[in-house]
Specification:
42% strand; four-stranded antiparallel sheet; 6% helix
């Protein structure tokens, strides 16, 4: 997954990053996916990527690699805003969530501005 943005293979885990200040997709923020291992003691990085021009990163987790557990998406928001010449309050955003059913698809959107963010379980 490293260094890839757009994936043609369907992923059970997707995200969509939207810049609410401009009303457009947030392009190219670097993100990392990790899973909590060792009985809640250690994060294991599963990969990293960038959003595509539509603000999506569809190939986060290859099909068949989903395990029930706690996951974390790390978004480098400061780097993304800096590329656009914009100051930001949050240097990064970490979204921690739980996957309980390995057969369900999970969508984790991030709504972002230089001064705020919000997330929710999407569909």
């Amino acid at each position: 997954m490293e260094g890839r943005g757009v994936e043609t293979v369907s992923s059970p885990l997707t995200t969509h990053v939207l810049d609410t200040a401009s009303g457009s997709p947030a392009r190219s923020p670097c993100l990392r996916l990790s899973r909590l291992e060792d009985h809640g003691q250690q994060w294991t990085e599963l990969g990293n990527s960038y959003t595509d021009p539509d603000g999506r990163c569809p190939g986060l987790l290859p099909p068949g690699h989903t395990k029930a557990g706690t996951y974390k998406l790390f978004f480098d928001t400061e780097g993304s805003w800096r590329k656009r010449g914009q100051e930001s309050f949050y240097p990064y955003v970490e979204v921690v969530f739980t996957i309980t059913n390995e057969t369900h698809e999970v969508h984790v959107p991030l709504l972002l501005s230089p001064w705020s963010y919000t997330t929710y379980r999407g569909s």
